[in-house]
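User: Please predict structures.

Assistant: First:
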Amino acid sequence: MSGPVADEPILSVRNLYGRIAGQQVVEDVSFDVPATGVTALLGRNGVGKTSTIKSILGLIDRTGEIRLAGERIDRAPTHRIVQRGVAYVPEDREVFGSLTVAENLRLAERDRSPRRELVASLFPDLEARREQRAGTLSGGQQQMVSLARALVNENRLLLVDEPTKGLAPRIVDEVADALAEAARTAPILLVEQNLLVVRRLAERVVVLSSGRVVFTGSAAELLDDHDRVQRFLGVHDEREAA
């Protein structure tokens, strides 16, 4: 699987518009995702973060130019984008509750040599629960299944939406550990509200407001500027966002 040339972003989005049932939810969004590390997509609730991810994947109606490693994918259907190495971890996990953990993972395998050992090392608790039905797992364990389904394949890009939402602090740490390890294997575009997790994982941030990009740059630069954090994200400090 070929990757981008040196200094070329893995994902380039230009003039992206997205619509749901005819309503504009993403409006003229442009940004790049570097070929390494974690880029966080931030903003207040309802500003279009999830819709931007879904627009990139073609899950909602969209127009604009989207390039993966220099190749246009904005005219490709979702399954073709996934086949090109874009993995998606949705906000609501979407595990198959009636299937076992092992069956959920097998369904996700698209490579000839799935990375089962990597998944087992990252999620030892899931390895011990391979024969347990996913619907009987805790919320945190289901999030691990959702992440594991993405990581079992070799990816060019991971799109991860709100992975720590609603999780206990201990589980948040485990998810952050898994994402840090995952970022060693593929770049990540991460939607995340917990700014402590963002500070730990992200090198760059893209901030949305009302469906538009209002800031791009260094994660540390944004998070160290309390006025910008309050203006763009609606929180006074990282403890309030955790």
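Second:
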Amino acid sequence: MGCRNLFFAAVISFSAALITYNIIISANASLKQEFPGESAQSSSSSSVDPIIRMPTETSKKKTRRLFHTAVTASDSIYNTWQSRVMYYWFKQQKLRHPNSDMGGFTRILHTGKPDRFMDEIPTFVANPLPDGIDQGYIVLNRPWAFVQWLQQVNIEEDYILMSEPDHILVKPIPNLSRDGLGAAFPFFYIEPKKYEKVLRKFFPEERGPITNIDPIGNSPVIVGKAALKKIAPTWMNVSLAMKKDPEADKAFGWVLEMYAYAVASAFHGVGNILYKEFMIQPPWDTTIGKSYIIHYTYGCDYDLQGKMTYGKIGEWRFDKRSYDNVWPPRNLSLPPPGVPESVVTLVKMVNEATANIPNWGS
């Protein structure tokens, strides 16, 4: 017990010290970011549409810029079945597109102990936060797990894609980052301007305008490895500080850790290309289009005529939360006619994965 209390105190002291350190060393750094193609004479960032397209490749010869895909997870059935499906499709995309920018893969397991799937999925075992520090918000283990992984593992690739278990790769992902900028998906519910008063506790005015904080979380994000090594400790410390602050905890709720990453990225001057076509989220996004990822965070409910009944359990449904304590069965029923392409593709891809993963449900 004494060792645990000592470690608890050390983590808190380290967090406070590092936040202060980051503020001091970064005080003179300009965080104003220019998007690719902007000149010094271009208008201020507030006049630029934050959803921008990737710069067009001008050279026919493309140099591969490999990125390492990292997914944080617990050992719950809920996280595990999603991780197995995600890794199946990661392998399929690499196999079918051997010249893509996709490099290695790591599941960062933040439970402190190995599980039964270490041989199936490349895994790094990270220690969880000491008891009580996450205050029941298990997501706080994510930045702490990334800190440990980045410090302890020799990662060959120069870039990192932070992904999640409930991501399915529908096509190979290119390295979307450019010119020192990360590449990230913009979330409509991350609103730095709306919460400027709260965010100024963690991103003081001398750091620049609140618009330096991008409307992103940590995933999906492709970012340089060197940049992430700087961002991750700050991400962890800001997450812990926000959770301890009643005003921030109430304002940000279940997306608190996402705000913390956005703050940490801005703190270190790492801007992001906001790439709306990075992923889709059924049932609201109905077509695959040019997207690379299906993020199945929302439940999909429909009647037998193919009409969405969101907010009401449908006659046909797929919701990952239906399988929080049990493995989803193989060969899930397909949606009725009229259901959008995105939902049909999602269920078909889950079915293909479960049909081909050995010992499914064991």
